[in-house]
Every structure is written in C-alpha cells, then in structure tokens.
Amino acid sequence: MKPAAAMGIADCLEEEVLIALVQAAAVAASRSNAVATEAGLSPSQYNVLRILGTAGEAGLTCTEIGCRMVTRDSDLTRLLGGLTNKRLVTRSRSPEDGRRSINRLTARGFRLLAQLEPRVTEAARESFAHVSQEGLRGLLRLLAAVPVHAAQSSYSTRTRAASIT
Predict the structure, then answer these.
(1) pTM, whole model, 2 decimals?
(2) CATH architecture designation of domain 11-130
(3) Where are the domains of the chain?
(4) E-strand stretches of the chain
C-alpha cells in the first residue's frame, strides 16, 4: 500500500507527491546526517560549516547564514555558539555595525569540513544510486519549480495569523 493511501489520501495528487517527497528526503538525509553526527555535529551545524566554507575569510553575519540554510533553525545564535565552543568558528564584531557579528571558519573548521565533504557527497550518491543522471536532472528541474522562499514566508505568515486569531 502506498503511504498516501495508508493515510487515507486518495484524491489529492499534491498531497501524495508531498508525502513521497518527504519520505524520500528523510531516507536520503539520514545518510548525510549520519556523517555529521559521527563527527559530533548536528545536520544544522554541518550546514553552517558548509555555508561559512563558501564565504571564506570574509565570513558572514547570522542573517546571511540564516538566508542560506537548507532548513530554518530557530536559534542560529545557539548553533554558532556550539561551533565556537568546538573551535570550528570564530565570531567578531562587524566594523560597520557593532551590533552584528561576523562568523568565520577557523583552520580547524576548514579541516573538518574538508574531511566531511567527500563523505557527505558519497552518502548523497548512495542515496540516489538507483536514479539515472537524466532522472536526477529532471527531478532537480521539477523541484526548482517549487517557490521555496515565497512558500516559507507565505506559510509562516498564514500560520502566525491563524495562531493570533
């Protein structure tokens, strides 16, 4: 029995697709997340390391990191604090705006990221080994059609409005 049918969903193709997508994402993410967990990181902390790795020496503010996160984390400051305690990230005040901090990877953070990235890549390849390159490109095109940022802000606005009323 298909998961959507098991949940009593028979008339809504969009819900069926959503359920299949969430289940596939959970399976694929579990492999990559295991690599981060083995290194003592949460998936969100690993995501922050990758984001800061692309920023290089310039670093990024919390706001800039938050905009690039795969999933939104409610307490990015806490995440960065944990990475700072592990000596993977440094934080310093912005010279332009003392209220903001600039976050950068340390040499230790860059080394850990360099060790983990190939393993995460391999985990992703294992997750999609049964799908052709053409199939993956097609899936990526389909997923790109979903307006991620617009949907998040629209949904969160409706949710806040519903919780207020």
Answers:
(1) 0.78
(2) Orthogonal Bundle (1.10)
(3) 11-130, 131-165
(4) 89-93, 101-105
